[in-house]
Design goal:
Elements (H helix, E strand, L loop, with lengths): L4 H24 L3 H30 L5
Length: 66
């Protein structure tokens, strides 16, 4: 079964949150290189979630076909 757009957006937000948490943990351990890479990954997930959210909003704004 295909994944709904809402589910995909939620998944991307969760991936971003997980990457942010992992980056914070790495930073706390002094592993700044890993923290930086995880922060970049989190940023990409956040951008993708934002893009998908905008697409979903645009779909909702279009009038339904009869």
């Amino acid at each position: 079964m295909p994944q709904s757009t809402h589910d995909r957006v939620a998944e991307l937000h969760n991936l971003a949150a997980h990457a942010h948490a992992a980056a914070a943990t790495a930073h706390g351990k002094g592993d700044h290189l890993t923290a930086h890479e995880l922060s970049k990954e989190a940023h990409e997930h956040s951008l993708n979630a934002h893009k998908h959210s905008e697409e979903l909003a645009a779909e909702k704004e279009q009038p339904a076909e009869a």
